Amino acid sequence: MVKQRIFTFPQKDEATFENFHTGQNQILLHLLKNFSTQTDIFCAYLWGGLGTGKTHLLQAACLQQNQLSPNSAVYLPLSQLKNSSAELLKEFESLALVCIDDIEAIAQNLLWEEALFHFYNCMQGHHGHLILSSAISPQNLSIQLPDLKSRIAASFVIEIKPLSDEEKLEVLRSRAKTRGFDLSAEVTMFLINHLPRDMAKLMDLLNQLDEASLIEKQRVTIPLIKKVLNT
Q1: Which one is the CATH code of 26-159: 2.60.40.10, 3.40.190.10, 3.40.50.300, 1.20.120.80?
Q2: 47, 78, 130, 167: which could form a disulfide with 105 (CB 3.0–4.6 Å)?
Q3: Model confidence at 192, in pLDDT bands (50, 70, 90)?
Q4: Neighbours of 187 (CB within 10 A)
């Protein structure tokens, strides 16, 4: 069994199913929680816009699998691996679960497409499970290799529904509370009205605000937010 690499790639927060705000994605969450026990679904394809939680869900799936069976799952972000040799996929062919993020990053790279096609077949051959994710629907994915395109099209495809503005505010308040500080209604409305409504960027800012409030020894206010944004 290969060495566990799930946390090779940086994570700002531990990604779990428990701290994923479900919104309209109850069916998706139920599927992923039980994915490794599925006998009728081998490959799932998750897609959704920026900040919808694709990376969080893939890392959570790997974490859960590795808790059940150590070193049996790996998370691979192709946006970071696309300049590496596609041969690295061979290291993970025997795992129970492989989660491949940003599949659009290797579209039209024939070496990677062929390697991914063979990897797909190997995983299916030993009854492993594969989760792919992309910001693009499979119909719009510019994969050139026909065989790989057909495999992806045959996957269980599910779109991640974005959170509403109110749900995003709820997530920000909840995450702030876990860090030991509160966000006032005024502050949360400022965040949602003056920043891109991308949860990944909002969470990055929340981390910066937490650090800044500790350094400045003051609560999180709109002036503090403006100071952090201008640094």
Answers
A1: 3.40.50.300
A2: 78
A3: confident
A4: 20
